[in-house]
Amino acid sequence: MSDPAEFKRAAAAAALDFIHPGMRLGLGTGSTAEAFLELLGARVARGLEVVGAATSERTADKARALGIRVADLDDLAPLDVTIDGADEADDALNLVKGGGGALLREKIVAASSRRMVVIADQSKLVKRLGAFALPVEVVAFGARSTLDRLERALAIAGYKNVAVTPRNGAEGLFRTDGGNLIFDCALKVIHDAPALASVLSQVPGVVDHGLFIGLASHLIVAGPDGTRILERKAS
Ligand code: 5RP
């Protein structure tokens, strides 16, 4: 096995061990989360009863198409477990997410869950976060001035000359399910993820950012040497 898609599927398959009948699930977004949905859908077809809150419209559509019951988060919370992918994870289980543009709903759903199990191919496990450009969700109103404030806040926090790029979609600027924009911040290396998360949260116009700190309880990584599960240490 050498294909990232196969590793994603292997990590997704291992996450099925966290699922039990009657559970209320958070359903993640992205190709790894979709691999999990396909495996979950097969279990549902064989009689497993679960219900899920989706982290994006795309995931909700896919889950329904696979026969997985979907309901509003507010009718289900607290959730038993969320299964989601990541763009990067470190060994403290801090994450960068939002490559698929769903970071806000992903964070709300993860924060509403007793556990968050992250599934990933081995390439996502990194020593230092930051090589993947950090997605930051901003409101469209005054987006240009938010971009300037964001650059200044990053510079003050020690991240100088960072390219902050509004994300494009199929037709002009990418819009999230909530109608917001995404700015991708090419930080290269994140020195202190909790400190940066706090800086970003204070920028007016920023709705949320793709740093997930203290949310993931488990990380399942699959690679050529097999699948392993990392558990977040109590802090
Ligand atoms: C979407 C996400 C995804 O979990 C992340 O982009 C990973 O995607 P994939 O599983 O396709 O590699 O955060 O907003």
Keywords:
235 residues; alpha/beta; Rossmann fold; Alpha-Beta Plaits; four-stranded antiparallel β-sheet; 26% strand; binds ribulose-5-phosphate
Topology diagram in text:
Layout (H helix, E strand, L loop, with lengths): L3 H12 L8 E4 L3 H15 L5 E4 L2 H9 L3 E2 L2 H4 L2 E6 L3 E2 L5 E2 L6 H9 L1 E9 L12 E5 L4 H14 L6 E4 L14 E6 L6 H9 L4 E4 L1 E2 L5 E6 L2 E6 L4
Parallel strand pairs: 1-2, 1-4, 2-3, 4-7, 7-13
Antiparallel strand pairs: 5-6, 6-12, 8-10, 8-11, 9-10, 13-14
The chain binds ribulose-5-phosphate.
How would you sum up this structure, described in words?
This protein has 235 residues and is α/β, with parallel strands linked by helices. Helix content is 31%, strand content 26%. It contains seven helices and 14 strands. It has helices spanning 4-15, 31-45, 57-65, 73-76, 103-111, 143-156, 193-201; strands spanning 24-27, 51-54, 69-70, 79-84, 88-89, 95-96, 113-121, 134-138, 163-166, 181-186, 206-209, 211-212, 218-223, 226-231. The strands form three sheets. The chain has a seven-stranded mixed sheet. A four-stranded antiparallel sheet has the order 9-10-8-11. A three-stranded antiparallel sheet has the order 5-6-12, covered by helices on one side. Helix 1 packs across helix 2. The model has no long low-confidence stretch (mean pLDDT 97). Residues 28-33, 84-87, 97-103, 106 line the site of ribulose-5-phosphate. The site of ribulose-5-phosphate has 18 residues, from helix 2 and helix 5.
